Automatic annotation (TrEMBL):
Family matches, as SUPFAM superfamilies: P-loop containing nucleoside triphosphate hydrolases
Domain of life where this protein originates: Bacteria
Pfam families: ABC_tran
Protein name: ABC transporter ATP-binding protein
Length: 301
């Protein structure tokens, strides 16, 4: 049985369907990316999972226990940072952790958690939150989400306001916790960062799940592409099309796919008297794959 199970969940605001038969699972130790455009239903789903809002029908269970707006028994093992952290301006970081740990029997070690989330810097633990930067508030919000030693952590835009080093450190912390069995459900618009982190993806659009897959399976439908810069890019495109390959211009390069292998492309280009100046293999890109999938889904609407 999955740690978190979301089955056929619906949420409606008047005539608008915010969630329509939403179903997906989160396994222990897995990092799952919940991905979609603004207004797709990501935050609505996260709020329903954490018992912050009701849903019209369907079932949400955590370790087999139901989660509803009026039943929060399972939420003691779930940490979350949704939208903006609830921070009190006149409390320090340490005081926040003590406050949020009051109703749990087994809180995380404050000193260790502050070090893990980088809120143990000089004076940071003593400074009042009203003087925090956006990045500081975000790191404190993540620490609050981890204070209960949760089995599942739900993070909405956790990298918001973080500098590149802090983003790298956060990825490392999440992976370390996942390796111990902690599960994560993460939404972020920074898809290149998310791609480096998640094990599974759940794609949502117009309140409906349009894809659930491992990252490897998600990219498996992507054909290998090669990016070429040549002495005559238009002639290269024409050559590729003549060989019944797919070719188009992107960022000053000719993207070619459909050939059996790269050597076949190089041989054909050289035989046509075209010089290759740069050449790269293009790996799967989460943003491009997502945009392609959303475009196809919108066409089917």
């Amino acid at each position: 049985m999955a740690l978190l199970e979301v089955k056929n969940v619906n949420k409606q605001y008047g005539s608008k369907k915010a969630m329509e038969n939403v179903s997906f699972n989160v396994e222990a130790g897995h990092i799952v990316g919940l991905i979609g455009p603004n207004g797709a239903g990501k935050s609505t789903a996260m709020r329903a999972i954490t018992g912050l809002m009701s849903y019209s029908s369907g079932n949400i269970t955590f370790e087999g226990q139901p989660v509803t707006f009026s039943n929060h028994q399972a939420l003691g093992k779930i940490g979350n940072l949704i939208e903006y952290p609830s921070i009190y301006p006149n409390l320090t970081a340490l005081e926040h952790l003590k406050l949020y740990a009051m109703d749990t029997d087994n809180p995380a070690d404050f000193k260790t958690l502050m070090k893990q989330t980088q809120i143990d810097g000089e004076n940071f633990g003593k400074r009042k939150a009203k003087n925090f930067s956006l990045g500081m508030k975000q790191r404190l919000g993540i620490a609050i989400a981890l204070i209960r030693n949760p089995k599942l952590v739900i993070l909405d835009e956790p990298m918001n306001g973080l500098d590149p080093q802090s983003v790298h450190d956060l990825r490392r912390l999440i992976r370390e916790l996942a390796d111990t069995g902690v599960a994560f459900l993460i939404s972020s618009h920074l898809l290149d960062e998310l791609q480096k982190l998640v094990d599974d993806v759940v794609i949502i659009n117009h309140g409906k799940i349009i894809e659930t897959a491992t990252m490897a399976a998600f990219f498996s439908h992507d054909k290998v592409r090669w990016a070429l810069e040549t002495s005559d890019n238009q002639k290269t495109i024409n050559l590729a099309i003549a060989n019944q390959w797919v070719a188009n211009m992107e960022d000053g390069h000719v993207l070619v796919s459909g050939a059996d292998n790269l050597q076949q492309v190089i041989t054909a280009v050289n035989q046509a008297g075209i010089d290759i100046t740069t050449m790269n293999t293009v790996t799967g890109n989460l943003e491009k794959s997502l945009l392609d999938m959303l475009a196809n889904d919108d066409k089917g609407e």
